[in-house]
Amino acid sequence: MLAKILLLFFIFSFQFTAFTQSVENTWTDYIGLYQRLGSQHVGGNCRMTPSCSNYGLLQFKSNSPLVALMNTSDRLLRCSHDIGNYSITMTKDSYHLIDFPTQEANRLAKPHWSEINYAATDSLELLNHSMSFIQYLMNQEQYTEALLEINRSIFEHKQQVLPLDIYVNYLRCLRSIGSYEKIHLVHQTIIPEVYREEPEILIEIARTWLALENYPKTLSVIQQIKSRKENPQKFKDEASILASICYAREFKWTDAQQVLLTIGTGSIYSLNAQDNQKQVSLGLAFKPKKPWVAGVLGIIPGAGYLYSNHPSSAFSSLVFNGLLAFAAYSSFQSGNTGIGVLSSIIGFGFYAGNIKGSVNSVKRYNQINQEKISNPVNLTFSF
């Protein structure tokens, strides 16, 4: 932490003398020097991704110097603390806490696991059917090989409309290997028109939009499934499960609860609905903390972080703000005005960053804790 404070000292000493000039090349050089030399002396083992120095680079490239100063100071106060408030990604060396400057970057950095999908089949009689090898490959999670067999079958029967299951399995294989964008092309070009509005196909399209986190599109397809009276109830119930996932991901707990209540106790998805309902109840009981309260409490260094359940960051804020205030006061008292001014600039950055960071920490607390509740809301199985 001390080496990182010295990094800031050098950066803002230059800013103080040339605040109105372009400083990008200079502070990039300072941070680069720290990354090459100073980082080695503190072990180069920042638990955050991106590291604090790279985070600072991103901040100064996208924000004004003042905002970048506050945000970088906040990050230094939070560095490697309070791991329960961050999503975690694994590297070959260790775990890292995901903390990019933007929510979109954080979302993209989170681990995305491959889907496991089993073959669709209407009857055990298909075990003796020529498509049984495709189903076998899928059930062994050999989706690429299954796709080759599916495409071979489609190629060999160009003039025929194959059974619906083979097209459902086509979409499931594509989802399993993460080719989500291709699914919509296949839906419009390869799947016969007679099947495109079938509930089995639309369920796969809805699950694709869900995997892409496009919840409005997912709900639109779900509504299409549920609005057709001729669709079997099992597909409408499966669509309701998917709708509950959408609402849970957006923390719309009341909407999630209402859609789950439409699934009757006699449904094959009743147990799935009950499990999801338990999680939704936790979401309804969750009391989000208020960002403005954290901001007001942040007037006292560390109090805002403490309110947002970041106790280690609160301690860091109290200590470093206190030390910087003392350094500025002592410098002015001893007549060392230059150091006093520089200490004041850095101290202002940490103090303002403590307030701004407290507000953001509350948002992070609300986000991560509701994600922990919503993630188990899922579809247990699909026909």
Walk me through what this model shows.
By secondary structure, this protein is mostly helical. The chain has 18 helices and three strands. It has helices at residues 2-17, 24-41, 52-62, 65-78, 103-109, 132-139, 143-156, 164-176, 180-189, 199-211, 215-227, 233-249, 253-260, 270-285, 291-297, 303-307, 311-333, 337-374, and strands at 48-49, 88-90, 95-98. It is elongated. Mean pLDDT is 85; it is low at 9-24 and 123-128.
- Helix-strand pattern, N to C? HHEHHEEHHHHHHHHHHHHHH
The level of helicity is 55-70%
Assembly form of the protein: single chain
What is the makeup of the main sheet?
3 strands, mixed
- Residue share in β-strands: under 5%
First-residue to last-residue Cα separation: 54 Å
Mean pLDDT: 85
CA gyration radius, whole angstroms: 27 Å
Record field, number of beta strands:
3
Low-pLDDT stretches are 9-24, 123-128
Note the overall shape: elongated
Secondary-structure content class: mainly alpha
Order of neighbouring strands in the sheet with most strands: 1-3-2
How many individual helices?
18
Quick gist of this model?
Helices cover 66% and strands 2% of the residues. It contains 18 helices and 3 strands.
Labels describing this entry:
383 residues; mainly alpha; 18 helices
